[in-house]
Amino acid sequence: MATRITAVAFDLGGVLIDWNPRYLYRKLFGADDAAMERFLADVCTPEWNARLDAGRPFAEGVAELSAAHPDQADLIAAFRLRWPEMLGGALEGTVEILRELRRAGLRTYALSNWSAETFPATRPLYPFLGEMDGILISGEVRIGKPDPAIFREFLTRFGLVAEATAYIDDHQPNVAAAAALGMKAVRFLDSARLREDLRAIGLPLDTAAPQER
Description:
Layout: E1 7-10, E2 17-19, H1 22-29, H2 33-42, H3 46-53, H4 58-68, H5 73-81, E3 87-90, H6 92-103, E4 107-112, H7 119-122, E5 134-137, H8 138-141, H9 148-157, E6 165-169, H10 172-180, E7 184-187, H11 191-200
């Protein structure tokens, strides 16, 4: 007999929150999208940002990168100084799913790769974060997804059973890591598909969001 799901954990960036460094760097590069993409691929790379999310101090990361790329030091510094400009709005379709699950009696959580330096300023911008039963960010524990250790810490901290917990993430390696620990892991593509996927694993959601009826 399948274990009933009683808790759902969400990634934040790309699932509940629209975060994209291009929102900032399009302002700085103007119409030169190719130069912006080279900068984000070769200088402020996803790997560099992942180390910040895993607890590396911004001051250290920015200083090291600026020493390696002195001609782009101002652009690198903007990653921290103008970080809020990378934030878009809430992804409302997913927020509605979160709230439907809460109304149905499920516990809801966030497990996200996010810097401990920037999350405190981010949290008040998205009121739905205050509705959750718990939030664990990678910068707090200095471990980033997809390291299984952060998933184990999450389950232990909130007293959750892996098999009774659904996990939603837009990054496949994170989905695979959660599934390997026994969580009901779901890859996020968009809110409509997520609604279908969660219904398929037995969660009590309407067939369509209220605004779509």
